[in-house]
């Protein structure tokens, strides 16, 4: 096997760029590449290039095309070029230098891509921060990242104000929902902005400046282009924190460029090369790595138009935006697909412009996928990735006819092996931990060389913690995460399988499964169920249904009805929170 792809990383911005995986010729997915016309390799630029080269080329190429739309206000690629250079010049004027960290804490508003690109163009490291963090969670990320500046939407300023120790942060830029809407003349948008203002908790942050002040503080002409290469870290992407303390995955310019080109390989195989101006729904928050890459970096690479949705939980408003702009691509998580497909207004939309629906972030329920295809006429195309892999590891071909309930084949120049607990490679059809090697894999966790070393095998494969099976065509199916596995009388029960089976009941809208203690069996499966509106079903009926769906040790033996399931901000069901409800965590 090969040597490790990383060195023990530090907090320095200049890391070790992972090389391409050496893919053995017997990997079963290579034949699937040929079948679907997917390129087996990507052509990376020279080592002395960076994301700046990619951005600048595309700003010139797509200048007059709308880059992003939010609340009916559009900015072109030419405007994005100017605005992001102004932000870059502003950051440089503060005395910040290449490799300094800059946090961005905001939902999907026009300022996000402007600031994100400005940070990267300044040669600094972007730190994505979930705006719904508590002060405690924010304090951890501020300290762990070492951020020196923070761009924050005022709705969340009180959270920052309540952080006791603000670490190295010396510069605060306060954004408002209406910052980029000034050119719009219309009572409706003005009303929206006024309504949002009423929702802002009172705060007091001395020394902060407004986004408009930062944008206009320095001319774009004063921007000094830094010297960067593929090995410089561009992004600190923090893990969700559901498995302990959140860790910052250090993703380089090379990691992100590689993943953009890997996504392009699968998209081009199905749709050719003409993407400019296609609208991509950006309802998933850009601070999440799936959306950051697919709706952010890849969208800009292809000259698409991102339709920014600040609040995807407002399904009524979301459906109106979909109706108005008719996106060609809808990336979402299972819970968002589920919410839309059960919305009466969504069912009435015209889907003739829709090219693909892309599922990521969590497993898509087969029942949701079936309903989605019945409504839209297209299958959900599922992919798989993690913060540590920039994020895409694998994908289904975009031109599949039906939902596969699998996460597809590995991305070009990516090797995947399944390992058992002893590190032995498992054969086709056998379960094992999914381990990944490729140019999109992080250089390591910020400030955590020990955790980094533990996350890689001796020969350089990143250990995902997910359990999967690979079939004879190279398609991978996720079984579950190691930590969520339920042990019943010595048998492994995977919550995903229980959830998928129980979601087939016509009265079930959503379901989450965990293991609860049992004197007789060690653990037993318990499900938490959200019923469909107006539906009636009893606990016993669901237990009886489980008997028909699952073998004895897998079937749920406990049922609890709830109004909603705890979810992350991108819609992933949090089993950790379900365990807390049972007093188990």
Question: Can you characterise this structure?
Answer:
The protein is an alpha/beta fold and 585 residues long. The chain has three domains: 29-49 and 244-481, ANL, N-terminal domain (Rossmann fold), CATH 3.40.50; 77-227, Rossmann fold, CATH 3.40.50; 485-581, GMP Synthetase, Chain A, domain 3, CATH 3.30.300. Helix content is 31%, strand content 22%. It is built from 18 helices and 26 strands. Strands 7-6-5-3-4-8-9-19 form an eight-stranded mixed β-sheet, sandwiched between helices. The chain has a five-stranded mixed β-sheet with strand order 12-13-14-15-16. Helix 3 (77-93) packs across helix 4 and helix 3 crosses helix 8 (211-217). The chain is globular.
| CATH homology group of the largest domain | ANL, N-terminal domain
Which fold does the CATH topology of the largest domain refer to? Rossmann fold
User: Would you tell me the overall average pLDDT?
Assistant: 91
Count of all domains: 3
C-alpha end-to-end distance: 39 Å
Structural class: alpha/beta
Main sheet, how many strands, which sense, barrel? 8 strands, mixed
Main CATH class of the largest domain: Alpha Beta
Q: How many beta-strand elements?
A: 26
The CATH architecture of the largest domain is 3-Layer(aba) Sandwich
Residue stretches low in confidence (pLDDT < 50, at least 5 long) are 1-13, 183-192
Beta-strand percent range: 15-25%
* Shape call: globular
In percent, how helical is the residue content?
A: 25-40%
Largest sheet, spatial ordering of strands? 7-6-5-3-4-8-9-19
Brief account:
This protein is an alpha/beta fold. Helix 3 crosses helix 8 (about 210-215).
